[in-house]
UniProtKB/TrEMBL annotation:
This is PEP-utilising enzyme mobile domain-containing protein. InterPro entries: PEP-util_enz_mobile_dom (IPR008279). It comes from the Bacteria. Residues 42-126 form the PEP-utilising enzyme mobile domain.
């Protein structure tokens, strides 16, 4: 069985299980660059939070999967993910770490750790559980 690298909230149940290389997008310019590269559908998109509105163009252009480091399924990005039927795992945490997102109490090191732990890795999203979404190594 493949290693579960991270877990978080599953935004909606789906049998879709997209695979791709995690791409951390920290700014609108990163999103535009990825869209212009023509390689959007090769990547699972990693963003900081559920209010990351600049990801909307990528969803409308066929993003295959999204991971957030904070936010809830009821957030802007959660709603858009459901609308576009894009598998999404929110408030992901690395299974190898004790660090967890806590509203108003999480320092920058938490986000850096997740970005460094996932960016560039080949993964598959497992969103079949009612509550827990999993980011699985896809070697």
């Amino acid at each position: 069985m493949a290693d579960v690298l991270a877990e978080g909230y599953n935004v909606f149940d789906t049998s879709k299980s997209p695979s791709g290389t995690v791409k951390y997008l920290s700014s609108p310019a990163d999103v535009i660059s990825l869209i212009q590269s023509g390689k959007l559908q090769e990547h699972i998109l990693l963003v900081r939070g559920g209010t990351t509105t600049f990801l909307a163009p990528a969803l409308s252009m066929g993003a295959i999967g999204v991971i957030t480091m904070s936010g809830a399924p009821e957030s802007h990005l959660g709603i858009l993910s459901r609308e576009f039927q894009t598998p999404c795992v929110m408030t992901a945490h690395l299974t190898s770490s004790d660090s967890r997102y806590v509203v108003g109490a999480t320092d920058e090191a938490h986000f850096v750790e997740i970005a460094q732990g996932l960016d560039g890795k080949r993964v598959r999203l497992d969103c079949t559980d009612d509550e827990v979404g999993r980011i699985v190594a896809d070697d």
